[in-house]
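Exercise 7.
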Amino acid sequence: MTTAASQESRDLALLRRRNQKLTSLLEVTTALTRELHIDSLLDLILHESTRTVDADRGSLFIMSRDGSELWSKIALGEQKMIRVAVGQGIAGTVAQTKQPLNIPDAYRDKRFNPEVDRLTGYMTHSILCVPMLGGRREVVGVIQALNHATGPFTRDDEELLMAFGAGAAAAIENASLYEEIERLFEGFVQASITAIESRDPSTAGHSGRVADLSVGLMCALERSSGPYRDLRFRPAEIRELRYAALLHDFGKVGVREHVLLKSEKLYPHELSVIEERFELARASAQREQLEEELALWRAASRSDAETRVQEVRARHAQKQAELDEMLDFVRRCNLPTVLQEGSFERLEDLAKISFQTSSGRTQQLLLPQEMRNLSIGRGSLNPDERREIESHVVHTYAFLSAIPWTRDLSRVPEIARGHHEKLNGGGYPKGVLASEIPLQTRMMTIADIYDALTAADRPYKKALPHTRALDILVMEAKVGAVDQPLLDVFIESKIAEQTLGCP
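Solution. The predicted structure, written as tokens, is:
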């Protein structure tokens, strides 16, 4: 083969190698743009940059926010934090000039710091250091490749690494922006939770606990042996459930505060009105007693009057005691406990009792609306108030639907809306059946019920023990209200114990 032919063959080989490198570089740059988590991205950039130019190892420096220094916590072969002031050393010079440095012999360059080699035991020979320039030619960072496999780095290596650096800079800016958006949205979610809990301080921590329980149950499904054992959830799906759980009660901001905070069947001012009315009844009875005594003293002899006055006083003392007992009964009925048998009938009887005011007007002891509220069988809400509280899920859905969610989080409104639905159609707001309730919502429903039963900070009820709460959930599953296989995993995997530390 002639010398010319040999040269042509070498040139073709070099060209093919360069084309392969460019093709590989394009593939790597595309891969970089898909990685949105900054730590994983930096690892990938460092690994691929050293491979692109056949370097033995390398370092990756990122520009600080104020542009005064470079920092590196990634160095192939070493895991040490390095900080370099802009303008100092090889990396600092490249950051300042925005120009690459191709150094065939590191120890002949005054900018090289041999102390790093002495500390690590590594021997640096050749260095190729290039800036990573962003869209506005701002320095995002610096890539430093060490020790080419066959000698000094070539001009082709320099061009390849510069091109790679531009793609890496775009990827870092993209990932940083994504991270900032995530932090911004996380802050928005936390602010929303604060807004919810400021409206109803008694439920503070509820949203966070429901989110932790829901995510714990989702992760446990992948380790379960039941019908959901083959399910696998992507990180985006876990995040979607977490956000839905954290925001599931946000609609409570649309519920009137006095209804939201109502802890007894009557509002405090309503009970005060009844107590004042009973005081009027006592005063009326006392006035009647005095009038009867005065009439007796006027009409009868002294000995006769004394006997009959004692009878009047005994009768009115009994009447006063009856009024006191009636008021105590009203106060007991006002508590958000289950109404005892016979209480409704007695309330009806009380509503029929009246007295004469000092002006001669007839006044009932209990008004119809008061009697209806005191007759609430369980809890503290009358039907109208309960409907208003239940409307919070509608408000939640409307609020969450107004947020321009990303594609991965687009189902957050739908998942959050159904947390009070029951598989048998007995829930609200739509009363849908199991087929229309997402699996993530079913998980959240179990978490929501459990936390509501065991919460110790509700003024209208006592916290139930862990085992009693599970018993109630089991009963709910038996009547088809909650998902039995999900509940089995919740109980068997000890989600509450591991997540909340329940005994």
